[in-house]
From TrEMBL:
InterPro entries: FTHF_cligase-like_sf, LUD_dom, NagB/RpiA_transferase-like. Residues 97-208 form the LUD domain. The lineage of its organism: Bacteria, Bacillati, Actinomycetota, Actinomycetes, Streptosporangiales. It comes from the Bacteria. This is Lactate utilization protein C. Pfam families: LUD_dom (PF02589). Transmembrane segments: none annotated.
Amino acid sequence: MNDRELILARIRAAVTPGGPGDPGEPGEIVRDYLTSAGPHDEAGLTELLAERVADYRAVVHVTGEDEVAATIASALAVQGLTRPVVPGGLPAQWVPEGAVQDDPELSAEELEAAGGVVTGCAVAIAETGTIVLDAGPGQGRRALTLLPDYHLCVVRAGQIVAGVPQALAVLDPSRPLTWISGPSATSDIELNRVEGVHGPRTLEVVIVR
C-alpha cells in the first residue's frame, strides 16, 4: 500500500461504520466539542469585544443609542474628515453631516480620495475581536471598506456573538463576507509592521450598548 492508498483508507475508516470497503452509509459525525469558553451575556460580550478590538490597535467607543451620532461626528472631526462615504441602508441617525452616498457607485479614485467610510456590520465576534461584513444594508460593497484609509464601523450589542462557530451559524456563506480583525497590517521577514497595505490604515469601532 502506497501513501495515497493509506491516506484514502484512513479517510474511509473515519467516515464509514464498517471501515474500508464497507458499502454502508457514512457514520454520523459528532460535533459535541466546546464552541465557546467566553461570556454569553450581552454585557460580557460587549466588554470582551471592546477589549479584543482594542488589542488590534483599533480605536473603540462603547456608547448608548442616543450618543451614536455625536460619537461618530466627534471621531470624524478628530480625523479631519468632512465628507466620508456611507453605504445605502445606514440608519439615518448615523449618517454624518456632509456624507457622500455610494449611489451611484463611486469610482476607485473617488473612494480613495474620500479618505473614510462609515458603515454598520453583519456580526461581531467577541473572542477574536473580529467584525464581519456581508454587503447587507448599511455595509455596502467590499470596495467601500477596503479603499478608504479610514473605516468607522458601528456594532450593535445584539450583533455580538461569543465565538466563530456562533458567527458562522448566522452568516450566509453565499454572500461576500469580509472579516476584519483590526486595521489592515502586514510585516516583512524582519517583522517590520506596515499598516494600510490592503485595507484601512485606521479602524474605529463604535459599540452600541
